[in-house]
Amino acid sequence: MPIGKKLLHILTELKSHAPFTAIGAVFGIIFMIIFKNVSQIGSHRLFIIFHPGHVILSALVTASMFHLHTVKKHLILVLLVGYFGSIGIATLSDIIIPEIGTRLLGLDIPTHAHLHQHSQTENNENPKTPTHSEHAAEHTISENQNTHTYSTHDERKIHLGFIEDWYIVNPAALLGALIAFFIPNTKIPHALHVLIGTWASSSYLLMNMLSEMTIPVILGIFATLFLATWLPCCISDIVFPLLLVKEPLHLHHHH
């Protein structure tokens, strides 16, 4: 099939999956509303559940397509393709795009409610009336704590899963690629891939979000989740396979 016709078919597939991806973004917002009061530790626990899950699915899809459409079916080569393909796609989807969205929307800037709650918590922990010197010392400690808790996005480092949570994410990528080598015809519903990827992106947003869930914030989150899911997941599940196969019309997705 001519490359122009194949690219046109890819654009058609991406367009047809846009409404489906939008539904996934809505489920991501519902996910964030349900867990909006979870602590930063709790949101990180959610992240290390759904991000490795997304990595496994990405590795399985990428390595399977490579395994089925190449004559070089060496285990090491399939593992490498599955590993780097999944780490790249999942990192872009679950971390990079949500990080950009967080910074552009200012979700990591504490609202008045967060500052008031933080101050009230400190007062409850220190109910006694301090002396002047104690008050000065506590004020200094409080400022340091606030600086640490509510640091600006310029000071905050991006949380790369394959580095920060290497003991879970990297084995997940290798596991997905290993399954693909032995069972390359495994059928993975595209809906499952989108849902897990959306929840991984939502968990990352929760890890860094200090803003209230207002209507403008929700709209911004929707746009972030849509792009975080539509671009990387569709590249992994749609664009990459369509570029590999000779006749893309025979490729079907299980929704």
What number of structural domains do the residues give? Answer: 1
Rg from Cα: 22 Å
Question: How far is it from the N-terminal to the C-terminal residue, by CA?
Answer: 26 Å
Q: Please trace the helix and strand order, writing H or E for each element.
A: HHHHHHHHH
Give the overall pLDDT as a whole number: 79
Helicity, as a percent range: over 70%
Number of strands: 0
Principal-axes geometry comes out as globular
Enumerate how many helices there are, as a single number. Answer: 9
Unreliable stretches (pLDDT < 50, length at least 5) are: 131-151, 248-255
Please describe the biggest sheet, giving its number of strands, its sense, and whether it closes into a barrel: none
Structural class: mainly alpha
In percent, how much strand structure appears in the residues?
Answer: under 5%
